[in-house]
Design goal:
Bound molecules: flavin-adenine dinucleotide
Helix content: 25-40%
Shape: globular
Largest sheet: 9 strands, mixed
Number of helices: 13
Structural class: alpha/beta
Length: about 500
Amino acid sequence: MEHFDVLVVGAGISGIGAGYHLQTRCPNKSYAIFESRATIGGTWDLFRYPGIRSDSDMYTLGFSFRPWTEAKSIADGPAILKYLRETAEAFGIDRHIRFERRVTAAAWDSATSLWTVDYEQGPDRRPAQATCNFLHMCAGYYNYAAGYRPPFPGEETFQGRIVHPQHWPTDLDYAGKQVVVIGSGATAVTLVPEMAKTAAHVTMLQRSPTYVVSRPAEDALANRLRKGLPAMLAYQLIRWRNVLFGMYFFNLARKKPERVKAGIIAMAKAQLGPEYDVGTHFTPAYNPWDQRLCLVPDADLFTAIRSGSASVVTDQIETFRADGIVLASGAELPADVIVTATGLDMQLMSGLKASVDDAPVNFPETFSYKGMMYSGVPNLASTFGYTNASWTLKADLTAEYLCRLINHMDRHGYSECRPIAEDPIEPAPWLDFSSGYVRRALTRLPKQGTTAPWRVYQNYALDLLAFRFGKLEDGVMRFSKPRPPITRPAATGGRLASPPPRQMADA
Ligand SMILES: Cc1cc2nc3c(=O)[nH]c(=O)nc-3n(C[C@H](O)[C@H](O)[C@H](O)COP(=O)(O)OP(=O)(O)OC[C@H]3O[C@@H](n4cnc5c(N)ncnc54)[C@H](O)[C@@H]3O)c2cc1C
């Protein structure tokens, strides 16, 4: 059985970043990245729908340790994938990746301070095991096997093609066709202008509107700075400007929602003209940042609507029929192709079945520690990015913190660290977000508390201070040393005596 000091699961943004931080900050530790697919990149390789792109800027979606040097700040999927591949190669992280290893379960044994990890290997999914001292789950936040796809009445009668963006068919030809995209999230607003370039017409069919904000695809200041300054310096400056602007905008939206709402709607009106019904199609019932804002580069969605190649319909689906969709209002939408941009099936840690000393871990019963570990679960971290900022900001901090923890344990001879929720914690939902994919998953997610370290702050600056400089021995994280070997006293007739209690090292 192979053994690693740290086993990282997943070779997307988070796993590649974790690899970098481990080899840089814990150079004496062995690590491997188990990746279930045959390639790296995660999300940025899996999603192949037309126009796939980031909806946050690459100066914050990029890694802290490697500058983004392309002209576009809102980048397309292939450019992001290239950046990830090149990063993995440049730092030799790719040599640590073991492809086609799908981790399914992990069992912690306190006597040996080891995780035994079950995984399926190769295309025929042969069962295998490995052990590690620390398990770092970087498996993303959704089910890779399938997206969320509610059934629609009458869909079996539809004569055209129905496709889900998570499994985009390579042979789909929509040129000159009538397309209906069901949804109003980031995927729908990406797909609509892109497909409208060649389709006869694209209709975005939404039950309710989303806030849509336009930003330039290229960041003019960033591009100027990159010409005059060393790449890393320019990158850090723009990164911090974007972080601070994002935090300012989020806080403003929380404190003065009406003002921010009015500003976003005014921008949509300016784009679409006075005749357009912005009230119906671009004015959500919720406040900005109750759900993620949809960012469109260079107003491409609005341009497509203005040109007439795309339109938005806000209505409910009554039924599919052979040649389209009938709506609750009685209106009919002709369709040759229907894209169900209905979202993701959120899943924590890829549905890992974990146990601690043979007791199964029920993650929804646990409290999340700093948004990265779980009460009562030793030596296991998982990466989950921000809902109001780029994922990588938190992924970098999580990986850095884990390295601090590992080095601290080494210095003190600890083999185990376990966050313990001793005092009662007031439970709160793990994510304070009203998006459909979050609401559908809340009962399957751990809880958070209302104060540190059990609270999940959606705030990079606060997290940066806590993760980089905060006390590791905070009274909640309990460290313990390896158990002495079990002896066989004569009184037990040579039978194994029960293991001695663990030596707990409280703060
Ligand atoms: C279409 C789309 C657009 C997005 N745009 C943005 C954006 O602009 N900005 C932003 O901040 N976020 C965005 N996100 C969120 C995005 O997922 C993150 O930014 C980021 O890519 C997550 O990286 P990750 O490595 O944590 O997870 P993933 O990219 O999901 O990678 C997880 C990896 O783990 C592997 N894996 C999963 N389960 C197992 C297992 N059991 N065993 C072994 N390997 C496993 C997967 O195969 C995959 O390679 C977007 C998401 C989607 C779906």
